[in-house]
Amino acid sequence: MSDKGYTVNSHGTNSQGNHYCSRDYGSSASNSNSYHYSNTDGSYYYSNPNGSTYHNNGNGGSTYTSPSGNTYQSGYGSGSGGSSKK
After folding, report:
1. Domain boundaries, the chain
2. Where is the composition biased (Polar residues) (predicted)?
3. Which of 21, 57, 67, 86 could form an SS bridge with 11, CB 3.0 to 4.6 Å?
4. What are 53's strand-pairing partners?
5. Rg (CA), the chain
6. Are 54 and 47 in contact (CB under 8 A)?
C-alpha cells in the first residue's frame, strides 16, 4: 500500500485518447480493485472502493449506484432524478 491508501495497478491512455486507472485498496475495501476511466467525449465512470459506482455520460446525464444497490439518476430529462433498487 502507498501512503495514499491504495496502490496503482495500471493506468494509461489508449490509442483513442481515453484514460484509465486501476487501483488496489486492499482487502479491507468492499471493492478492493477499483478503477475509473474518462473518455474523449467527456464521459467517465468510477467504480469506487466502497462498492458504489458513478457514470457521467458527458452530456449532463449521470447515474450513481450506492453500495446497497440504490440507483440515482439525474440530467436525463423527465422521469429522472428518482431512485430505484436494482
Report:
1. 7-79
2. 7-19, 40-73
3. 21
4. 47, 65
5. 15
6. no
Closest alpha carbon to 66 in 81, 86, 80:
86
**CA 14 remoteness from chain centre:** 18
Q: Convert the pLDDT of each residue in 25-60 to its tens digit.
A: 988 889 888 999 999 999 999 999 999 999 999 999
- Measure the CA–CA gap between 40 and 61, rounded to whole angstroms: 16
Look up the pTM and report it: 0.77
In sequence order, what DSSP letters do the residues of 64-82 get, joined into one string? EE-TTSEEEEESSSTT-S-
Architecture of domain 7-79 in this structure: 2-Layer Sandwich (3.30)
Residues 1, 26 contacting (CB under 8 angstroms): yes
> pLDDT tier at 86 (50, 70, 90 boundaries)?
very low
Backbone dihedral angles phi then psi of residue 19, each to the nearest 5 degrees: -100, 145
